């Protein structure tokens, strides 16, 4: 299957992308991974992206599009892929369409993870990380440590990332509404959009997603 995954920050895209890709035996292609791989490998696109990032500027769409195209042309993506974080706006969505037409392939669905905005804010603003190991993640409500502000694993101090405050989260949501949400209507007009509620346990959301994608594919 060839799938695009969309949803606001805090919707659980990263978690679902990993599980869905493994379940469907297709590569998970995330924008973050594309940037890291190209920069670490010193590719022309990676060097170009790094130059923009070092200057504190946004990486142009054409650079991101180029990285995504290169990745989708790799052998492991021949039978399908799951795109996470790409496309993030209409320019990228239209470029993806052009690429798919050139390759003689098509998307099977665009999965939209729907989460109420207040829930998104609660999920992200309540997140706490261990200063000793960012891999130890807690939540003040859903997964609190045994001792307040102390990591259960190593005793390190727990902290809130600067961009996880409520004000910053709401700003990120505004950017999502302005830049990314328009692609939802774009794909809906192509009868590719599959929207599911993303509340509940991870396996419940995954099962919901696969059932909805299969139904859309067969329609």
Short key terms for the protein model shown above:
single chain, 219 residues, alpha/beta, five-stranded parallel beta sheet, three-stranded antiparallel beta sheet, 9 helices
Short description:
With 219 residues, the chain is α/β, with parallel strands linked by helices. The chain contains nine helices and eight strands.
Description:
The chain has 219 residues and is an alpha/beta fold. Helices cover 49% and strands 15% of the residues. It contains 9 helices and 8 strands. It has helices at residues 13-24, 31-41, 44-54, 61-72, 90-103, 117-125, 166-180, 182-188, 202-218; strands at 2-6, 28-30, 81-84, 109-114, 127-130, 137-139, 158-159, 193-197. The strands form 2 sheets. Strands 2-3-1-4-8 form a 5-stranded parallel β-sheet, sandwiched between helices. Strands 6-5-7 form a 3-stranded antiparallel β-sheet. Helix 4 runs parallel beside helix 5 and helix 6 (117-125) crosses helix 7. The longest helix is centred in the last third of the chain and has 17 residues, at 202-218. It is globular, with a radius of gyration of 18 Å. The two termini are 15 Å apart. The mean pLDDT is 93.
Largest sheet descriptor: 5 strands, parallel
Arithmetic mean pLDDT: 93
Which residues sit in consecutive blocks of at least 5 with pLDDT less than 50?
A: none
Overall shape? globular
Determine the number of helices (DSSP H or I, runs of at least 4 residues).
9
What fraction of residues sit in β-strands? 5-15%
């Amino acid at each position: 299957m060839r799938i695009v995954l969309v949803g606001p920050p805090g919707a659980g895209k990263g978690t679902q992308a990993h599980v869905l890709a493994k379940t469907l035996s297709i590569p998970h292609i995330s924008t973050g991974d594309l940037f890291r791989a190209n920069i670490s490998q010193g590719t022309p696109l990676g060097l170009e992206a790094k130059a923009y990032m070092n200057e504190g500027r946004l990486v142009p769409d054409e650079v991101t599009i180029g990285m995504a195209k290169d990745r989708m042309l790799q052998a492991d993506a021949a039978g399908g892929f799951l795109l996470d974080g790409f496309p993030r706006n209409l320019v990228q969505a239209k470029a993806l369409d052009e690429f798919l037409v050139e390759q003689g392939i098509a998307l099977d669905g665009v999965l939209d993870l729907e989460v109420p905005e207040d829930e998104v804010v609660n999920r992200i603003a309540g997140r706490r990380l261990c200063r000793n190991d960012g891999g130890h993640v807690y939540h003040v409500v859903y997964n609190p440590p045994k001792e307040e502000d102390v990591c259960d694993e190593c005793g390190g101090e727990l902290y809130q990332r600067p961009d996880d405050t409520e004000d910053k989260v709401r700003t990120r949501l505004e950017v999502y509404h302005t830049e990314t949400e328009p692609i939802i209507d774009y794909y809906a007009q192509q009868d590719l959009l599959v929207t599911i509620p993303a509340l509940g346990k991870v396996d419940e959301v995954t099962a919901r997603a696969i059932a909805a994608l299969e139904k859309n594919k067969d329609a």
